[in-house]
Amino acid sequence: ETGVTQTPRHLVMGMTNKKSLKCEQHLGHNAMYWYKQSAKKPLELMFVYSLEERVENNSVPSRFSPECPNSSHLFLHLHTLQPEDSALYLCASSGTSGGVSSYNEQFFGPGTRLTVL
Amino acid sequence: DQQVKQNSPSLSVQEGRISILNCDYTNSMFDYFLWYKKYPAEGPTFLISISSIKDKNEDGRFTVFLNKSAKHLSLHIVPSQPGDSAVYFCAASADKLIFGTGTRLQVFP
User: Fold this and answer.
1) Going by fewer Cβ within 10 Å, which terminus of chain A is more open, N or C?
2) Which parts of B15-85 are beta strand (E)?
3) Is it the case that residue B16 has pLDDT exceeding 90?
4) Nearest neighbour of A56 by CB, restricted to B2, B45, B96
5) Tell me: the pLDDT tens digits for A30-43?
C-alpha cells in the first residue's frame, strides 16, 4: 500500500449505530487530519493530530471521536450520528518542514462516503 | 464567513486552450497558497503551491499567480487536456489550510 488509505470506502449506518473510520498513511508523515466534505461546501477541517497529539478540534460534536494510536494510523469513531452528518470524510497527512510539522502540503486519502439513515 | 472563495462553480474549456481558475481570499495573514485537484471517487491531490513572497510559480503546464494587493489567486493550465477535467480546490494557509468550494473544470475535445 502506498500513500494514504481509508477504509471503508462506503458506509451506511443508522442513527443508533456505532462505527469507525480508519485511515493509514505510508508516507512517514507525523501529522494527520480529518476533514468533512459536504455537498457544495468547502472541506471542513475537523481534527488535527501532530506527533500523535490532538492539536486542533474545530468545534466538532462529541458524536465524532478521533483516535490516533501512532503516527501512521488515525481513526474516527462515530456514534449516534444524525442524517446531516452524511458526507465524504477525508483523511490527510503531512510531513515536517525544518523540524516542524508542515500543515501545508497535505496528502489525502480517497475518503469514506458516509450515509446516515 | 468564507475566507477562501471560488466564485465559479464550473468552467468548460476546449482542448488546447488555456484554462484559468480563480480564487479570492479575505485573510491577509495567509502566507501560503495551494491548488488541489480532485477526480471522482479519489481524494484531492496536491498540484502546485506558491508562497506569499512570490507572485508566480510555474510547473510544466500549470502556473499559479498571486496578487496580494487584490487578495487574488489564479491557476493557469495551458494547453488544457481532457485529462485535466476534475474539480480544482484553492487552499490558503496561515496556521491551517482553508479550502475553497472548488471549481469543476471540463476540457472537451
Assistant:
1) N
2) 19-25, 32-38, 45-51, 56-59, 62-67, 72-77
3) yes
4) B96
5) 899 999 999 878 88
Please state, in angstroms and rounded to a whole number, the distance separating the CA atoms of residues A97 and A94.
Answer: 10
Closest residue in A to B40 (Cα) is: A110
pLDDT at A55: 76
Q: Tell me: the pLDDT tens digits for A58-108?
A: 789 999 999 999 989 999 999 999 999 999 999 999 986 555 545 678 999
| Chain A residues whose beta carbon lies within 8 Å of the beta carbon of residue B102 | 42
How far off is chain A from B108, nearest CA to CA, in Å? 23
Residues of B in contact with A106 (CB under 8 A): 46, 97
User: Following CA atoms B8, B14, B18, B22 in sequence, which dihedral angle do they give, to the nearest 10 degrees?
Assistant: 10
- Residue A6 CA: distances (Å) to CA of A2, A47, B10, B43, B53: 11, 16, 28, 10, 36
